[in-house]
Structure formats: structure tokens, C-alpha cells
Design a protein that fits this description.
The protein is mainly alpha-helical. It is built from 13 helices and two strands. GO terms for molecular function: endopeptidase activity.
């Protein structure tokens, strides 16, 4: 009976459906690559897979919020005036993480970190591609819905941890498509989960300081794009980026501006 009640929970349904839709698209991508489907087809499938949490939320929306309109719900997520102090603080902290990563990698490893894109045009296209493949497709479901719902029952810190873990494991199929095996795969997964849970804490704090979904979208974009633009040994880059986010998460938990994380 407990399991049945749990499965009737709208938030649980959202998580399960997000996982299922992502897995379906991921499987379709794999099949497409095996049969030699055009690259344009696999690219579209990759983009759609990133929107699986949005698709899940849209499908379940009438049952989650009966009588409400989806467009009104989305408008509310962007209704609060954007606080430039919060926005620039988020950008500054994440840019410092990138700078710190480049400095430490250059001085402590054999990895030479360079830009993946040399032309502004390519960099801009990569920026838009990254935005569509990640933040725009994921934040409505994971932050706009799941985080806000969990915060109705739990403290922001606990909600952030729960979303971080659930959102992290949603990426599971990507781990096994990374090309890593053995110890390297374990290291990759560990760094990924440390980073994504830490990022979830970081973004929850700043999102709660300014309840506008632009904050998590921008934060997520910088988080992802930093890994795209830095060219080098991925595991070395991940080691520093993710541990920096862990350090930042620890600091914001300790400092906890305006007691946001424990309200």
C-alpha cells in the first residue's frame, strides 16, 4: 500500500516519467547511430532528450495543478523582477570557478587547457546549442516544479539535496556513453554527482534570493558551458570544476545568507 501511495504522488510520477522519457530518447539515439541515421536526426533526438523533464511536467500538469493554465504557471516563474545583484553574483562566482580551474590545471597537471572554439561565430553557436540542450529543457521541471514543490515540505537545503540526487541519476545513461570504464568510470560518476549535488545547493540559494527562473537557467548554462569551452583531459577538468562547486556549496551552507537554506 505504501508503494502504491508513493507512486500516486505527483512528484514521484514526474521523476519516473522524466527518467522513462529520457531513456526512450537515449535508446532511440543509440539505435539511430547503429543503423546509420543522418546526423541531423540524432541531433534532434539529443535535443529532445534534454527536454524530457519538461515533457513529463507538461504531460502531468493538468493532474498536478487542475484548473490552472500552463502558460500562467510558467509566467509566474519569471514574474519576479530580476535582481541584478543576485544575477551578477551568480555569474561572478561561476566565472571564478572557471578561472580557478584553468589556473590549477595549468600549474598542477600535464593538461593544457585551451578554448574549444577559436572563432566568435562557433562560440556563439556552441552557446546556443548548449542552452537548448540543457538549461532551457531541464529547469522548468527540475527547479520550476520539483524544487519548488519539495520546498513546501522540506527545508531548501534538503530540497536541494533531493533534487540534486534525483537530477544527477537522471543522467545515468550518459555516464555509460562517456567512453570511460573501470576506475575511470567510477571517478567520472563520483565527480559528476559531487558536482551536480553541490551545484543544486548553490543554485537553490540564489534562486530563493530571487524567485525568477532566469537565475537557475543562467547558472545551469554557465555550469554546462564551462565544460564545453575548456579543451583538455575531461577527468582532470571535472576534478577541479566539481570540487570547486563542492567548496562553494560548503561555503554557502555555512554562510547561508538571510538564512535562506534553513527556512
Amino acid at each position: 500500500m505504501r508503494v502504491k501511495r508513493l507512486l500516486q504522488n505527483p512528484l514521484v510520477k514526474f521523476v519516473i516519467l522524466s527518467y522513462v522519457i529520457f531513456l526512450v530518447f537515449f535508446t532511440a539515439i543509440g539505435i539511430g547511430m547503429l543503423v546509420g541515421a543522418p546526423e541531423s536526426i540524432t541531433t534532434i533526438l539529443q535535443i529532445l532528450s534534454a527536454w524530457s523533464s519538461t515533457f513529463a511536467f507538461v504531460i502531468l500538469f493538468p493532474k498536478i495543478y487542475p484548473g490552472r493554465k500552463l502558460k500562467d504557471f510558467i509566467k509566474e516563474l519569471f514574474a519576479q523582477k530580476l535582481k541584478l545583484s543576485v544575477f551578477f553574483c551568480v555569474v561572478f562566482v561561476q566565472l571564478m570557478i572557471i578561472v580557478g580551474t584553468i589556473i590549477l590545471l595549468t600549474n598542477t597537471t600535464d593538461t593544457q587547457v585551451t578554448a574549444s572554439f577559436t572563432g566568435f561565430g562557433l562560440l556563439f553557436l556552441a552557446f546556443i546549442d548548449n542552452l537548448v540542450r540543457g538549461p532551457l529543457g531541464e529547469e522548468l521541471g527540475w527547479r520550476g516544479y520539483a524544487l519548488n514543490e519539495l520546498q513546501k515540505r522540506y527545508s531548501p537545503l534538503k530540497a536541494a539535496l533531493l533534487v540534486g540526487v534525483l537530477w544527477g541519476f537522471w543522467h545515468t545513461p550518459l555516464w555509460f556513453a562517456s567512453g570511460y570504464t573501470g576506475v575511470e568510470l567510477i571517478k567520472y560518476i563520483a565527480l559528476f554527482m559531487i558536482g551536480i549535488v553541490s551545484f543544486s545547493i548553490f543554485v537553490t540559494l540564489f534562486y530563493n534570493l530571487n524567485k525568477n527562473l532566469v537565475i537557475p537557467i543562467v547558472s545551469h548554462q554557465i555550469f554546462n558551458f564551462s565544460l564545453v569551452v575548456m579543451k583538455g583531459e575531461l577527468l582532470d577538468i571535472l576534478e577541479y570544476v566539481m570540487l570547486f562547486y563542492f567548496l562553494v556549496a560548503f561555503i554557502v551552507i555555512v554562510i547561508n545568507p538571510k538564512k535562506i537554506l534553513y527556512q
